[in-house]
Amino acid sequence: MNPFDSYQTRSGERRLGDHLKLRPEGEGQYIFVAVAEDIGVRANMGRPGAAASPAAILESIAKLPLNAWTESLDLGWVWVDVADLQAASHAHTGPDSLPALRELVAEVDARVEAALQPLFAAGKTPILLGGGHNNAFPLLKAAAARQPMNALNLDPHPDCRAMEGRHSGNGFSYAHAGGFLDRYVVLGLSEHGCNEASWDMIRQTPGWTAITYESWAVRGEMDMAHARDLALKHVQHAPFGVEVCADGILGCPSSAQSEFGWTWEQVAATVYQAGQSGQARYLHLAEVAVGLCPEEKRAAVARAAAWTALQFIRGCETPFQ
User: Rounded to whole angstroms, what are the CA distances from 224 to 204, 216, 269?
Assistant: First the structure.
């Protein structure tokens, strides 16, 4: 499936869609990887809506102008086909549905990993547009072919719940148990959003740490810029993944939407600086739930995600000297 087949050229203008529509799947350095599912969110007892986001974000990317700031970027795309799994998941509802949904998430894992492995092997940089945060596991697994990865997760939740079957809340638990994740930092962990077992795992796992949202937003012990610097120093000595969960973005529709948190501009600054480190191997925009948006706000949310993805790419293109 070419997600740009429906893109309509605008007379008198060149836009990214004119370029991406003609690119074969997987060609390019920075690859937008679309995973249109919310099975992992529902398997974690969250609200669906993320499955609609990849197509909406790619549509927004297609409409961005080709100009002096974007023309040199070597962009491409991959569409991971999970439509049959997403459709099958709707047969499973209610409290007894979790085992079946978690089995489907394991199948999503396998397809995402298979799509990502050749990209990492070729030295490309995926930007995964989700979808649930469950996709952190196949991302880390595919990226860790040569050595375990580090990860920076901008998220009020650590997503290291029990290994009780795959879902959006335990991608980092599974990645660590599989030997794919080494150092891990949760930037913006909510002191009121982390269960006891997850907090124990963070404290007891060598190389794992967290910087809480309340430490800068409430108590003023530091500001977010300083917290970001600390988080990057924790992981950037080796290859790492950049994880962003929409649950922490102020007012962004997501499985656990909140009216407090950080702004899209602060997310963009974080991923830009991560890209500048020269060690970031991927960006994962997880749980943006365009499907939960009022119709009049969908385009704006998709544009924010698209803009953020481009800031990461620009950071990778302008590394620290």
Answer: 25, 6, 10
